[in-house]
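Why do we care about 3D structure at all? Because function follows from shape, and shape follows, mostly, from sequence. That is the central idea of this module. The next example makes it concrete: a single protein chain, its amino acid sequence, and then its structure expressed as tokens.
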Amino acid sequence: MRDFSQAPFLVIWEVTQACDLACKHCRASARPGRDPRELSSEEAQRLLRQIREFGDPLLVFTGGDPLKRPDIFDLMKQSVALGLRTTITPSATPLLSEETVERIRDCGVSRMAVSLDGACAEDHDRFRQVAGSFEWTIAALRHAAKIGLETQINTTVTQHNFATLDRIAERVGAEQARLWSVFFLIVTGRAQQADDLSAEEYEQVFEFLYRTSKTAPFDIKTTEAQHYRRYVAQQRKREGAASSAPASLIQRQAGINDGKGFLFISHSGEIFPSGFLATSGGNVRTTTLQEAYRNSRLFRVLRDSDALGGKCGVCNYRNLCGGSRARAFALTGDYMAADPRCIYMPPQYSPAA
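And the structure:
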């Protein structure tokens, strides 16, 4: 398992919080206008050089909608020129035209990711709260496939689409996406606790994802469902040599968690363990990414599995999984508490102790 004490595997940069959608789950509570506190172009370029000093982490330009930032194409080009593996997650609005998709490809990015939260226009647009978002999403995916730009589809699992995940998976395959990234809700921003699934329903989704991964023409990964790795490990152990489930993505994600192999930079330069855990380890205007990630107390504690509380602290899967630190914080106020959406009871855990 990789040591993430010195460098993250994945860096997410929220280049802006501006967005023309009004998604029900938006962690950033995004709005159409740009925040004057955004990093300037000069600060942004300096930030990219700092990210490169980590080595070659995967960099994701996100938002809000990164297309709302006028210099986004220049920033993508610089990122690629620096040798960073670069992806972007634009919002599906009229800004994501065929010409824009082609410009994204021409910047040399590895992949474009778009969100799909319903298998049909009615379901998706109701969640995104803007009519036409579904059609813009599908059009962008199809044009990307036509011009040779690799794509990824992000889906946030909520009570709104829990029952139709099979149909969404069919869409992912039909639109030729390389990866289905399934996000599990964190109650922050505009997200409501009533929209979240129960711990038992999480396990039902895990079962569906695991079964789908055996035959799907795309890879599957989860975000803020670190315990899916535990589920996969359990299933592979039960199946033994007969297991046909792909393990490569799970192995690459092993041990990654908020602040551990994962780093998020806000639009105003705050250095967070993730976008869903908005507790700052510093700001790029006053400290370096390396200093914050390697030495801030916040990040050091998050990487210390011995500091985990509750059943996560004694779990036999704690180094593979570790539970969602963002979810623990959102639901308990303690980012080192046990993940409230995990049903697994470690053999050595005694609730009365």
